[in-house]
Amino acid sequence: MGRTLQNTMINLGLQNACDEAVYQLGLDMEELEEIEEDAGLGNGGLGRLAACFLDSMATLGLAAYGYGIRYEYGIFNQKIRDGWQVEEADDWLRHGNPWEKARPEYMLPVHFYGRVEHSASGAKWIDTQVVLALPYDTPVPGYMNNTVNTMRLWSARAPNDFNLRDFNVGDYIQAVLDRNLAENISRVLYPNDNFFEGKELRLKQEYFVVAATLQDIIRRFKASKFGSTDSVRTVFDSFPDQVAIQLNDTHPAMAIPELMRIFVDIEKLPWDKAWDITKRTFAYTNHTVLPEALERWPVDLVEKLLPRHLQIIYEINQRHLDHIASLFPNDVERLRRMSLIEEGDTKRINMAHLCIVGSHAVNGVAKIHSEIVKTQVFEDFAELEPEKFQNKTNGITPRRWLLLCNPGLAELIAEKIGEDYVRDLSQLTKLHEFVDDDLFIREVAKVKQENKVKFALYLEKEYKVKINPSSMFDVHVKRIHEYKRQLMNCLHIITMYNRIRRDPAKLFVPRTVIIGGKAAPGYHMAKMIIKLINAVAQVVNNDPMVGSKLKVIFLENYRVSLAEKVIPATDLSEQISTAGTEASGTGNMKFMLNGALTIGTMDGANVEMAEEAGEENLFIFGMRVEDVTELDRKGYNAQLYYDRLPELKQAVDQIKSGFFSPKDPNLFNDVVNMLFHHDRFKVFADYEAYVQCQEKVSELYLNSKAWTKMVIRNIAAAGKFSSDRTIKEYARDIWHVEPSDLKIPPPNEPREAGQDKTPNGTAA
């Protein structure tokens, strides 16, 4: 979520008033804003997307709730010591959190372990351990519409009789100390991005958020006029018309068997009825195609922790496979591929398959990704139910990612096309009229220059590095992962360095290359990549032959509040994943909206950015998905590229020989070995095209006016990438609710009689 103060002031239309009031108290609002901690309750794009979606849902007047876990410790703080990443605990609640309100009156029990008893009256899950879920509510204000939605985060609490109700007469002190075991569930965020780690505590977290949330939703449904009761039992027929639940990846997939358990075991609905309601309630968004990221929980673990849910999953699977067998008799291979249970050394539950079978809609997050989902990853399922599969291209909220972080540019745009674009970003197309307006071109360039100077001062203050604000700011910020190919950027840096040294007199367009992002603590290769970047920076930044032509900076502890500083100051945005690996990306959209040009592959939303702006207004290079597939078919041989490209050979040899690590020449052996022998992401295959494309970038940068005109064309084409547009599509195609642009009257104005606060029936 990042910080909340400035976003709240902007959405309430109070920023200027607050700035002035604080100034009159002799304080500086910006200094005050810098004191607030980031709420870092997610890993990368997935968590930030949810935050943008909350802002858009409130702005569109949807009655929507964001549910998650109130981690005591969020994503770790990253320190760089001697070029290595070191993790520190993110104690973000140390000074309290003024935006949250604990709601003990809505506390709910969540059950674990135990056993299942079957009788004539149905299944009973008994002898369980209970953990209490305490909700904390954070307001989510819409933009200037007096709507405030709720983000409800659950915190784990031990019941007061925890470990004291059983035969444990003896050790009262130990029993109280053991309360920590239950409360550990919401202690810390697992810091893996795009990687599955099958740990029991993680599964507990996933079920904890799901079980608490579903009870909360059902309580609200029963309290509404829709949860009509026939004598005693609630009638749930209208449930899917009143409730839509969107599963953000497979992490909350246990919601599907949990809702079935509630309907069948507790509410006593017949299975078929329960299943129909469940399917119509859930929709699933897939966020990655990397096989190592797909959740596959061991059956033994689920059986121990959630025995009843395993039985329900088996029943869902049995009915699912019976259906497929009836359509494709004797096709055992198809049954194996489509089963929710994977046989092998350890039997596992494929959570993506569970989500597809248990949902009425499945979507990818960019056109190209949704195609890959349909034709490759889940092709059997798409063949069965093609109408179930959709695309919803990701977006970003223009409130945080333009108004808040780049007020200079936001104001400049408003002067030209009015202020309405903030709620309807498609209006940015009106800027096309000003592409040849010399004054506008100069003003856009001036705003960018001011942002660069401001960021340069920040870097000087925080990192004691002096950088040249007239150099091209070449920025690569995102989680560190092999598929995102920070290594390819690194090879380009070394190539530029070698060119400067080979011919110091030759014209060189000065660059400041900024790379930032966190590596999962257990991801050895990602940590080596950080060390390599810092080792290269050490050499480059201290070579007198290079001077101010090339500077390399590793940005420590990349997070939302730092993104808000670096993105408005960026000239060149690096989006260079191997084609077919980045589901969408959203940083790419933030840079586009803030006046950076993109160098990128035809991957994720880059494809649609090129479609919107015209391919000639992005620096597109490298293999397309088809080329990658073809190269896989032939067999990728890294040695070929190394032998054929002298500059690549030189750069790799320098890494290999210890040129960047003289004290330990073998330091980067693992990296070099990976690049030659098991590089799934084919860095060498795109190196030549990348370097050539970077030459084109430098050439254009020399012509400031032509560069800025291309920037304006990009901003004018960024309208599609508002999360408002994304949410309207979810609302229309999946949730079946109507966004409303009704502005609720403020509390100090009398309301018209009978005016309903929520004009839409369904709550998402």
Helix content estimate: 40-55%
In round numbers, the mean pLDDT is 96
Q: What strand line-up does the widest sheet have?
A: 21-20-19-22-23-24
Low-confidence segments, given as residue ranges, are: 753-763
Name the structural class.
alpha/beta
Entry summary:
It catalyses: [(1->4)-alpha-D-glucosyl](n) + phosphate = [(1->4)-alpha-D-glucosyl](n-1) + alpha-D-glucose 1-phosphate. Helices cover 45% and strands 14% of the residues. The protein is built from 31 helices and 24 strands.
What key phrases describe this protein's structure?
five-stranded mixed sheet; Rossmann fold; 14% strand; allosteric enzyme; pyridoxal phosphate binding; 2 domains; 764 residues; transferase
Q: Could you characterize the architecture of this molecule?
A:
One of its GO terms (biological process) is glycogen catabolic process. One of its GO terms (cellular component) is cytoplasm. Its EC number is 2.4.1.1. Pfam families: Phosphorylase. With 764 residues, the protein is an alpha/beta fold. It folds into two domains: 38-81 and 101-225 and 233-391, Rossmann fold (3-Layer(aba) Sandwich), CATH 3.40.50; 407-719, 3-Layer(aba) Sandwich (Rossmann fold), CATH 3.40.50.2000. The protein is built from 31 helices and 24 strands. The strands form seven sheets. A six-stranded parallel beta sheet has the order 21-20-19-22-23-24, with helices on both faces. Strands 1, 4, 5, 8 and 9 form a five-stranded mixed beta sheet that branches. The model is unreliable at 753-763 (pLDDT under 50).
